[in-house]
Design a protein that fits this description.
The chain is of the alpha+beta class. The chain is about 30% helix and about 40% strand. Helix 2 packs antiparallel against helix 3 and helix 4 packs parallel to helix 6. About 15% of the residues are buried.
Length: about 525
């Protein structure tokens, strides 16, 4: 466990260089060894060195950036010399690159190999008046598909991929093996031939190239044998252009004389996709919207999605739904599809890293209100059941186990922190009395009583009256919006538990009181803290 340099100097992470200097000068008044008698000088020397170390790191822009990103470990590592030769933007870019690589490696370890499972169920019988509970166990499964793929790097620029798929469709079982080899000529140009064996053998070729910074194109071609007497083929090309940073225009041409034009626009708080397809056998207009859910002005890891499609032959179709992250690697998505000819179908997808499980549930062959109600409420029930019966208990148990393990691991460090806090309070006492006398003389801010820790448990509270009084400057006390554990004179009585700070103070001889959460900012005095009747 490492020291929090911002907490030591009682600063927030957005503090300026002048703030760092001012805080350092105030703390030197209390802790400089020359200001203490010989009996306390050794203890003062240790605390002063900690304050000096925090100041040296935060006053220098480069070391501060390294500390903000990598912590104390980054300052003490072998590659800190290299980092210090970079500017602040280069340091952050290096950090982003390392973090991105770590996330990719972590996901790669946690989720390989890639797999997908898909089940299509006909639940339209549930809406019949003669439906019985036991019929729920006999819902017909129209299709069941399992696929698994493995990547095999052949060289630094060539990668093979093999996908094995087993399909059971209306009690007819088939199997497919597909292999591709992607060769990258450059980071923006690759070619991928493929071969599919089994049901409907196929030879394919796909390619991509970015022609300029704004223009790119892709090509595809397939030669398919759906039965021994017929061989069919298809090919096409897509040309795309980055119109602006968030806008992409694409047009796809195929040999069957179909042209599809689409435009995608990424806005600050939503994504919009629109497309128009024109061909001999189809004419389709589509509009899609993806929007993050905002709570308190902040984006949560939850999205709503909606689309409207109109096909000349299939008629109108409406889709709406949402997706939400369950854990760091898991996501649940639910979309209800309403079509004039396709009826009411629910599309559920549970994704775990690179593993996906898809459930398509047909509620009705035609659009009717009761089917829409079923399709809308069912995913809510599934999510609530998963969240409250599986995910939340698991996360709470894991959090408790991690907290207990961490507390045991840090027990020696926490004991050292307690001793340092008590030593700091001893050194503060002389300054404390001077500040109290000064504030009393002008009717200023006097901390009468301050407690920090877990309220409701007396053995998990510590008295921080003296540390807070020593931070009073010009009858004001300001604490940043971060945990108070690392502040001088504070220590952790209950690792991993939610803590609060209670302060009872006098200002202009009027009593005030305030209680805040551990990571909340505090600015006193405030009129709103005044105790009624005092």
């Amino acid at each position: 466990m490492e020291d929090d340099y911002y907490s030591i100097l009682n600063l927030d992470r957005n503090c300026t260089e002048d703030d760092v200097k001012a805080s350092y000068r105030r703390l030197c008044v209390h802790y400089h060894p020359d200001k203490h008698n010989p009996l306390n000088r050794e203890a003062a020397e240790g605390l002063f060195q900690k304050i000096k170390k925090a100041y040296d790191v935060l006053i220098d822009p480069k070391t501060r950036t390294i500390y903000d990103i990598y912590g104390v470990e980054g300052l003490e590592s072998d590659w800190s010399v290299t980092l210090k030769s970079m500017n602040q933007n280069e340091i952050r870019e290096a950090y982003d690159r390392i973090e991105r690589q770590k996330r990719e490696e972590e996901e790669e370890r946690a989720t390989n190999p890639v797999s997908a499972t898909s089940i299509e169920v006909d639940a339209s019988g549930l809406l019949h008046s003669d439906y019985e509970i036991q019929d729920f166990l006999n819902l017909p499964i129209n299709s069941f598909t399992i696929s698994q793929s493995v990547d095999a790097p052949l060289t630094d620029i060539t990668k093979a991929n093999v996908v094995c798929t087993a399909i059971n469709n209306d009690s007819i079982a088939t199997g497919v093996i597909r292999g591709t080899v992607r060769h990258s000529f450059s980071p923006t140009c690759w070619l991928e031939p493929g071969l599919t064996l089994g049901h409907s053998p196929m030879v394919s070729l796909n390619g991509f190239s970015r022609l300029t910074n704004f223009l790119f194109c892709s090509v595809h071609g397939e030669l398919i044998q759906p039965n021994p007497e017929i061989i069919s083929y298809d090919a096409g090309m897509t040309v795309g252009c980055n119109l602006t940073d968030g806008t992409i225009l694409k047009t796809e041409f195929t040999l069957d004389r179909t042209v599809k034009t689409s435009i995608s626009r990424v806005l600050l708080n939503c994504n919009i996709d629109a497309s128009y397809t024109l061909g001999l056998e189809t004419q389709r207009l589509s509009l899609q919207l993806l929007k993050p859910i905002m709570v308190g002005g902040k984006a949560k890891d939850m999205f709503i999605e909606a689309s409207i499609n109109y096909d000349v032959f299939d008629g109108p179709e409406v889709e709406y739904g949402c997706s939400k992250a369950l854990t760091d690697f898991s996501r649940l998505s639910a979309v209800l599809k309403l079509g004039l000819y396709s009826g009411v179908k629910l599309h559920l997808v549970l994704t775990r890293g690179r593993h996906s499980y898809t459930f398509d549930i047909l509620f009705s062959d035609v659009v009717e209100p009761v089917a829409v109600v079923y399709g809308t409420t069912f995913p809510l029930f599934v999510y609530s059941a998963l969240h409250y019966l599986v995910i939340k208990p698991y996360l709470n148990k894991k959090r408790a186990e991690d907290t207990a393990a961490k507390a045991e691991e840090l027990s020696a460090w926490l004991e050292t922190q307690r001793e340092e806090a008590r030593g700091a309070i001893t050194l503060m006492k002389e300054s404390y009395h001077k500040i109290v006398n000064l504030e009393q003389g002008k009717g200023g801010l006097i901390i009468m009583q301050a407690w920090y820790g877990v309220f409701g448990s007396a053995n998990k509270l510590i008295d921080v009256t003296i540390p807070l009084q020593c931070l009073v400057h010009s009858s004001r006390l300001i604490l940043p919006d971060s945990t108070k554990v690392g502040m001088l004179g504070f220590y952790d009585m209950s690792y991993g538990e939610q803590k609060k700070l209670s302060v009872k103070y006098s200002f202009r001889n009027v009593m005030h009181e305030v209680i805040i959460n551990d990571e909340d900012a505090l600015r006193i005095p405030r009129q709103s803290h005044k105790i009624a009747g005092s």
